[in-house]
Amino acid sequence: MKVVVIAGIPGSGSTTVLENALEILEYTHVNYGDVMLTIAQEMGLADDRDSIRKLSPDVQKEVQRKAAKNIRERSEETNIIVDTHCTIKTPHGFLPGLPKWVLEELQPDQFVLIEADGDEIILRRINDTSRIRDVEKLKDINLHQQMNRAVSMAYAALTGATVQIIMNHDNRLDESVEKIIRTLE
Ligand code: AMP
Ligand code: MG
User: Fold this and answer.
1) Within-domain flag for 52
2) 60 lies in a domain?
3) 163 three-class SS
4) How many of the other CB atoms lie within 10 Å of CB of 34?
5) For 151-169, b where at least 16 C-beta lie within 10 A, e where not — what string?
6) Ligand nearest to the CA of 8
7) Mean pLDDT across the stretch 6-34?
8) Model-level pTM greater than 0.90?
9) How many CA atoms within 13 Å lie on the side-chain side of 179?
């Protein structure tokens, strides 16, 4: 079945856009972070989703690999959209969200990158009290989005998947949702 990957840096609104689009689209929503959190909790490694990215890179990769296997099994029955990250900003640097072994498990057909302006992202992070968001400067947020564009094309080159970039500006959620629906139907 079809596998779509949707990604966006924290504060881009990728999960919000996706949840709205799923009112129309027939895909099963799989949150990679949820799967990783369940595995990390079972292994006694983390209690909340925002502490996973602080674990050592090797441990993150072990959990990431287990999550990929788990998700692959679900994609055999239905079309799925995997809500994840192209890169994870860790204290050791950018960790690839879809290294070769994850791509081999998931075999994605399409990548959708959700982006917003850096200043919009800064304000959204400040206003989101439900998460432990890292405080970052505008230039670091811009760099993170650039890294994600670059690495998503590398993921595409490895899989043949297409890459669609969708801007999700403040007060224009409907437009972003419409674009993702058009891309995926
Ligand atoms: P989220 O709720 O989307 O912010 O995801 C929670 C956490 O899950 C992220 O901060 C990462 O630590 C982890 N995560 C999600 N997707 C991946 C991935 N593809 N590879 C490694 N870690 C991931
Ligand atoms: Mg998310």
Assistant:
1) no
2) no
3) strand
4) 13
5) bbeebbeebebebbebebe
6) 2
7) 96
8) yes
9) 18
Sign of the C-alpha dihedral, residues 168, 143, 39, 155?
positive
Residue 160 included in any domain: yes
Place of tokens 């919009």: 120
Average pLDDT over residues 165-169: 98
Is beta strand 162-167 parallel, antiparallel or unpaired with respect to 110-115? parallel
Atom of ligand 1 nearest to the CA of 96: 20
The answer to whether the CB of 161 falls within 8 A of the CB of 111 is yes
CA separation for the pair 23, 52 (Å, rounded): 29
Residue 135 alpha carbon to ligand 1 centre in Å: 17
- Supply the pLDDT for residue 150: 98
Write out the residue range of the structural domain in which residue 100 sits: 3-31+78-184
CATH of the domain at 124: 3.40.50.300
In tens, the pLDDT along 26-45 reads 999 999 999 999 999 999 99
Torsion of CA 106, 6, 90, 116, to 10 degrees: 160
When divided into structural domains, the chain yields a total of 1
Distance 94 CA to ligand 1 centre (A): 12
Q: Is residue 39 part of a domain?
A: no
What is the whole-number distance in angstroms between the Cα of residue 47 and the centre of ligand 1? 14
Distance CA 92, CA 159 (A): 27
**Model confidence at 125: pLDDT above 90:** yes
At 131, the pLDDT band (50, 70, 90 cuts) reads confident
Q: Which amino acid is at 168?
A: N
pLDDT at 77: 84
